[in-house]
Design brief:
- The protein has about 160 residues and is mainly β.
- The chain contains two helices and 13 strands.
- Strands 1, 2, 3, 4, 5, 6, 7, 8, 9, 10, 11, 12 and 13 form a 13-stranded antiparallel β-sheet that branches.
- The two termini are about 20 Å apart.
- About 35% of the residues are buried.
- The N terminus is likely disordered.
């Protein structure tokens, strides 16, 4: 019985929004972007944690004046494997960039250290979102979604 409870506690329902203190431990003031360190806008940070040393978080990059301007918009870190669309993301540091389509965003994930593309996912306009946010990650038990403005795409904790 105890083993069943322990397994359930590790599942998606155990994840919660990260506190400001937890986010500050994950989000650097200057994120590694290839050979540069680009300032982050902490007030836009969002993340989730399982409370046991695993977290997923992201933040807007202040890219004006850097070579990343226009290609990357967000810094993203995951301490657990994720599945985003058809992309398998191992734990690590990533950059997110997007291109706007008519009713969607083409979102590309890149490795933060090299800038190498990892894959793409489509973010669609989400009419159930009432609050537009620069970046938000929802706990998997609530809505397994990552939000960029009015657009969202789903994710899953990889097993």
């Amino acid at each position: 019985m105890l083993a069943v409870f322990a397994q359930a506690a590790r599942g998606p329902s155990y994840w919660r929004s990260a506190s400001e203190v937890e986010l500050r431990s994950l989000i650097p003031a200057r994120a590694p972007v290839i050979s540069e360190r680009i300032e982050t806008e902490f007030r836009t940070a969002s993340g989730i944690t399982d409370g046991k040393g695993h977290a997923i978080a992201g933040v807007v990059l202040i890219t004006a004046g850097y070579s990343a301007d226009g290609k990357y918009s967000h810094y993203f870190v995951s301490q657990v494997p994720l599945k985003v669309g058809d992309i398998q993301l191992p734990p690590g540091q990533y950059l997110i960039g997007w291109v706007r389509g008519q009713d969607s965003l083409k979102v590309t994930f890149y490795l933060a250290q090299s800038g190498k593309p990892v894959g793409e996912v489509e973010a669609t306009r989400n009419l159930s979102i009432t609050r537009v946010e620069s970046f938000r990650i929802w706990p998997p038990a609530d809505k397994p979604l990552i939000q960029l403005g009015r657009f969202t795409f789903s994710y899953a904790l990889a097993q």
